[in-house]
Amino acid sequence: MILVTGAGGLLGKKLVKVFDDDVVGVYYKSKPETSRYLSLDLSSLNIKAIEDLSPDVIIHAAALTDVDKCEKDPGLARLLNVDVTREISKVAERINAYLVYISTDYVFDGKRGNYREDDEASPINVYGLTKFEGEKEVMRFSSNYLIVRTSTPYGSNPASGKDNFALWLLRKLKNGEKVRIVSDQVTSPTLNTNFALMLKECVEKKVKGIIHLAGASPLSRYDFSVLLARTFNLDEGLISPASSSEMNWIAKRPMNSSLNVEKAMMLENKPLKIEDALKTLKKEIEENENSEII
């Protein structure tokens, strides 16, 4: 049995889908699309229900990922991203489960980009710091683990009651609204379907240590937005470049937190180039009868 925390989130929804019948989705507010699920408030740190299920694999995808909210409420960020991870790591060790922890490119300071798995982490905001501390809790308490870092996930499905960046942008462009997007911050945008398939393969092969599972094309949010508009035949002229210094962000962002994915290229399900990822996104949205995007 595979247990996925954060099963109603952007990554969690795809993970429970690719693992199909062999999965239990753990959620708090956003119900997952799986036949077996467990409603649990992880912030209580009472996770005996997970231990009682005794899964073979625990994929810990639940986290506070709102970067500015983490900055405003570091206590909550520490509770959800560090303390919860510690307790899950302890449970995984007690029941001899293989633990997969979903981390982020924001553990790096963003001064150079193309970060490898063994590069030194140096987070510059509370979100990155608490996720890195979560990594350390996994390594401290679990002897059978995989730490997976990803970057700027997006997908065809709304999650936790809101659109991801790609869906937000598509709605804006479809409505003819002008948008200003930062052009000086580089990441490795990751289609959640590609991520889920890569992670499934890692679980099946029991890959251990740290691996970067992200898109194969580092680019700015502005360049990503222009390619997205072109893929969906929308007006890219509605998109204007902006500097990150113009944004009303509370937390600092790494300027180039792109991830090196050479290690993941050894998988059968390889990291997708941005053009292929966006074609897959378009196909998924077209096949979704309930989609209002196109």
Automatic annotation (TrEMBL):
Pfam families: RmlD_sub_bind
Every RmlD-like substrate binding domain range: 2-281
Source taxon at top rank: Archaea
Gene3D superfamilies given in the database record: NAD(P)-binding Rossmann-like Domain (3.40.50.720), UDP-galactose 4-epimerase, domain 1 (3.90.25.10)
InterPro entries per UniProt: dTDP_dehydrorham_reduct, NAD(P)-bd_dom_sf, RmlD-like-bd
Protein name as annotated: dTDP-4-dehydrorhamnose reductase
Protein's organism: Acidianus manzaensis
